[in-house]
Write a structure and sequence with these properties.
Layout: H1 15-21, H2 25-32, E1 40-43, H3 51-58, E2 63-67, H4 70-79, E3 86-90, H5 96-99, E4 104-110, H6 119-129, E5 130-141, E6 150-151, E7 154-155, H7 166-173, E8 178-185, E9 190-197
Parallel strand pairs: 1-2, 1-4, 2-3, 4-5
Antiparallel strand pairs: 5-9, 6-7, 8-9
């Protein structure tokens, strides 16, 4: 999502450095536990950098991509137009249960959670759409000074004070009905905190 009024510091980056940061998005998806035949949601999908490989990985399972920004969602739609299991949703991530009416196996959110004003509220919305035992993966920048996370020779990522440790994420997500399953490294500057619905 790139609406600063709702989710601060979550503007979609330029494609060149996004590709430099995430050259193999499918590997990230596999690392957090997304597998074939799953029903999955790419929450706050942006331009769909993770969405297309998600569609291909879970096929014939469905992939829903949700974003509040119509232009970015349109980019994701164009990128996934050859994937019959792709479904676009223009909407607010916090209203996820109104948008998806069938239970899903996995919800994935990348580089956005740090900017969500009420992180437990969003986690509750995710909890509501997951099947029993379903998983929620939060991809976040490590809590390092911004100048220590360069991409293409420039400091990148959210402001240092917005960054979260896995323990920070855990404190917000677990009260919504989850338990932390694992924390995995998913890039030079990122981790994935994977939670299971209880």
């Amino acid at each position: 999502m790139n609406n600063d009024a709702l989710f601060p510091a979550t503007i979609m980056p330029d494609a060149d450095w996004w590709q430099a940061l995430w050259p193999d998005p499918e590997a990230v998806l596999r690392k957090v536990g997304i597998t074939p035949d799953m029903q999955v949601v790419d929450l706050c999908c942006g331009d769909g950098h993770f969405t297309k490989p998600m569609c291909q990985l879970v096929h014939p399972g469905k992939t829903w991509a949700l974003d509040l920004d119509a232009d970015l969602l349109g980019q994701a739609e164009r990128g996934c137009e050859d994937n019959p299991n792709f479904h676009a949703i223009l909407g607010d991530a916090r209203e996820l249960p109104k948008q998806i009416t069938e239970p899903v196996d996995f919800v994935f959110i990348a580089n956005t959670f740090h900017g969500v004003p009420d992180k437990t509220e969003l986690s509750q919305a995710v909890h509501e759409v997951l099947k029993p035992g379903g998983r929620f993966a939060v991809i976040n920048w490590h809590k390092r000074p911004r100048e220590e996370t360069p991409v293409l020779d420039l400091p990148r990522g959210p402001d240092t004070e917005l960054r979260m440790t896995p323990e920070d994420v855990q404190r917000y997500v677990e009260p919504a009905g989850f338990k932390l399953d694992e924390v995995v490294e998913v890039g030079s500057y990122h981790y994935g905190a994977v939670f299971q619905k209880i």
